[in-house]
Amino acid sequence: MTVILLRFGVDVKSIDEVYVYAAIDEEAGFEGIVGYYDEKRNTWMPLVAADEDRMEEVMSIAEFVSKQSNREIKLLKLSKREEIGYIKPGKEFELC
Predict the structure, then answer these.
(1) What is the number of other CB atoms lying within 10 angstroms of the CB of residue 77?
(2) C-alpha distance from residue 69 to each of 9, 24, 36, 44, 63 (Å)
(3) Which residues pair with 73 in a beta bridge?
(4) CB within 10 Å: which end of the chain, N or C, has fewer?
(5) What is the pLDDT of residue 3?
């Protein structure tokens, strides 16, 4: 079993907007979230941020991925928050 540790933002009290670096797969015609392989953590990481500071931190990674993949990468700001469900410890997902 894999255990995932959550990292909470220092100054983020509520996630009301999310910044996403996205690209189009021209062959398939789908838009997707850009990710990169983090060798220190030995895992893939999506380029997603819950605040402007983190968005700016990962911008250099997005620029590197764009150059290496020869693809245009868009920066999207998603800002409509809607809580649709929750998971309590030891319970299954429930809709609100």
Answers:
(1) 11
(2) 30, 12, 11, 16, 10
(3) none
(4) N
(5) 59
- Give, in order, the Cα–Cα distances in Å from 32 to each of 46, 48, 70, 87: 10, 12, 15, 25
Place of tokens 């894999």: 2
Q: Is residue 28 part of a domain?
A: yes
**Domain range for residue 43?**
18-95
Q: What is the DSSP string of 11-36?
A: S-SS---EEEEEEEETTTTEEEE-EE
Structural domains in the chain (count) = 1
6: in domain: no
> How much is the pTM?
0.77
Angle at 74 between CA 68 and CA 78, to 5 degrees: 140
